[in-house]
Amino acid sequence: MLYQKPKFQISYRIFYLILLVAGITSDCMSYAGKPHNEAFVYYTVQSNVICGVLALIFLIRACKGLHHKMTILDLSDNFSIEIDKKTKILTSLQCLASVWILITCLIYNTLLGNPFSIDYWTKNLHNPILHLFCPILFILDFLLFSKKNIIKPFIPALCVTYPYIYILYIYIRSLHLKNLFTNAIPDSLVVYPYFFLDFDNLGISGVIRWVFILTIIFVSLGYLLLAIYTKLGKKRASH
User: Fold this and answer.
1) Inter-residue contact 73 to 65 (CB < 8 Å)
2) Considering the entire predicted model, what is its pTM?
């Protein structure tokens, strides 16, 4: 099939990375003239950057494989084992990143944005790119191109690691800002990027409730993606 050809995968990832860079650049440029650039405070940009780094790694590996005109099966046994270990780790990370970016897509398009409005498509170039197009492209990359049947069943449960780290980062940052600006934090600085993390308005119980809900969603989506990944692997093996 076309999507299994190395040249197609390389072209696909190059297109994805170009689109991603355009989206992040547009997002950063939207802060032009403002005292602070808060683009990278948002989970959206951070999760897209993680996906971009992984896509770049897979692109480089694909280019090297095409250049040497070999696959893992063409290599010596010792080198093959080393590559397989790297592939397992990278594919597991790609699975986790697919969950993270899927959440970016779902949360924004259901709770924060309205893809059925004209403003969604015309106000900012980065909105549809970072919240819709790039997430879909990255998830398809994982489902279609990744090596099948090497992800352990416990991996999707680890998908909460980065979100928890992000939440911790936001609250440490908010404490720093409150200590730094004792009177009032400038409007140009984002304290709580998302309403469900707003400790001041929701209180600790409200935030914990949202974190609990999102944890269930993250893990559920992780195992859903794993199920699709496994099914596609079996389908590919049968052909």
Assistant:
1) no
2) 0.89
